[in-house]
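FORM 12-B: Structure-to-Sequence Request
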C-alpha cells in the first residue's frame, strides 16, 4: 500500500526524463510478460488442438509454416495481461518496478491510488501518445500542471517522490 497519502501539493510533477526512464525499465518487464503469456497461450492452443477442441483454422495456424494470420484472441489476452500488470502495481502502491527505481508515482489529486478504469485509460492514452510520436508525453511541457495525455485522460497525475533518508 502507499506509504503515506499525499495531498495535491505535496509532490512536484515528475519530469519527462524520469517518466521515460521508468517506461524503458518497465518495457523490458512487459516484453518478458508478453513472451511468457504468448508461450502459455500457444501451449494451451496446441493442447486443445491435439485433443480436437479447436477447428482446422487454429490447427493450421499452430503448425510450422502454416498460414499464421492474426489471432484476435491472443491480442486481447496480451492487452488484458498488460492491463493487469500495470493495474496491479498502480492499484497497489501507484508504482511499477520502473517507477520505484526512478521515484515517481501515479496518484489521484488527493493522493489516493488510481482505479482499474483509470489504469485502462492510462494504457489507452499511452498507446495514443506513442502513436503520435511522443506528442502525448511532450504535452506536459505545454500543460500548466505538467500533465501528459495519460494524466489528463485518466484524471490522475504523475509525481516525483523525494529521496528517502538512509540512517545508518
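FORM 12-B RESPONSE
SEQUENCE OUT:
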Amino acid at each position: 500500500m502507499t506509504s503515506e497519502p499525499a495531498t495535491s501539493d505535496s509532490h512536484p510533477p515528475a519530469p519527462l526524463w524520469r517518466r521515460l526512464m521508468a517506461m524503458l525499465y518497465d518495457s523490458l518487464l512487459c516484453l518478458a510478460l508478453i513472451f511468457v503469456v504468448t508461450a502459455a497461450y500457444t501451449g494451451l492452443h496446441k493442447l486443445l488442438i491435439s485433443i480436437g477442441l479447436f477447428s482446422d483454422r487454429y490447427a493450421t495456424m499452430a503448425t510450422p509454416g502454416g498460414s499464421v494470420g492474426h489471432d484476435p484472441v491472443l491480442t486481447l489476452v496480451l492487452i488484458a495481461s498488460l492491463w493487469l500488470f500495470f493495474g496491479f502495481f498502480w492499484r497497489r502502491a501507484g508504482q511499477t518496478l520502473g517507477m520505484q527505481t526512478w521515484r515517481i508515482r501515479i496518484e489521484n489529486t488527493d493522493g489516493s491510488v488510481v482505479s482499474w478504469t483509470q489504469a485502462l485509460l492510462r494504457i489507452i492514452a499511452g498507446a495514443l501518445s506513442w502513436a503520435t510520436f511522443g506528442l502525448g508525453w511532450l504535452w506536459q511541457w505545454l500543460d500548466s500542471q505538467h500533465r501528459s495525455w495519460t494524466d489528463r485522460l485518466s484524471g490522475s497525475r504523475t509525481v516525483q517522490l523525494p529521496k528517502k533518508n538512509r540512517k545508518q
